[in-house]
């Protein structure tokens, strides 16, 4: 099993699917990347936990985490064994959860949403481990300056059938992670009552604006 950290969440513009967001896991050396599609209710607690923010309306996963803590259950690790992508909606991972309550240790094997597994691990401060087999099946090698943001940008361009002119570099801006940072910015604005939390409307327009940002004002998108 390979220890990983949660790199972040991005909007992925898959308008024909409920999996409107993507969560990225990266191995500890920062050499391999895994990306999973997740739903809005899975994305919210992950973004909040990563950035130490509080949701205006706590979700069921928060109640679950708080109840387990109250009962003195500690989640010692989450081991993601495999991931299935059965159409149309059954994207589930097979996870082993290791619990400790005082001197008692229990291991629980569950089929669950990948976002719920990651969110629970973050809320209960448990390490996440991923099988080497899953990395072999779905992992992206981060080499030659490739970052998670660049990997997503290239995937999106390929999906949209947009060819980047030879020698042209994609523009990422000062932060280098503009799409990831956009969700955090939206979330913080929602806490101030200035925006809804992760609005999904106008997705085509948002995608177009991101592609123009990547390629420049004169890009044909």
Tell me the layout of helices and strands:
Elements: E1 2-11, E2 21-27, E3 32-38, H1 40-50, H2 60-70, E4 73-86, E5 90-101, E6 104-112, H3 114-123, E7 128-130, H4 132-138, E8 140-141, H5 148-159, H6 178-191, H7 203-215
Parallel strand pairs: 4-7
Antiparallel strand pairs: 1-2, 1-7, 2-3, 3-8, 4-5, 5-6
Features:
8 strands; 7 helices; Bifunctional nuclease domain; globular; alpha+beta; 221 residues
Structure description:
With 221 residues, this protein is of the alpha+beta class. 35% of the residues lie in helices and 29% in strands. It contains 7 helices and 8 strands. It has helices at 40-50, 60-70, 114-123, 132-138, 148-159, 178-191, 203-215; strands spanning 2-11, 21-27, 32-38, 73-86, 90-101, 104-112, 128-130, 140-141. The protein has an 8-stranded mixed beta sheet with strand order 6-5-4-7-1-2-3-8, with helices on both faces. The chain is globular, with a radius of gyration of 18 Å. The chain starts with a strand and ends in a 6-residue tail after the last helix. The relative contact order is 0.18.
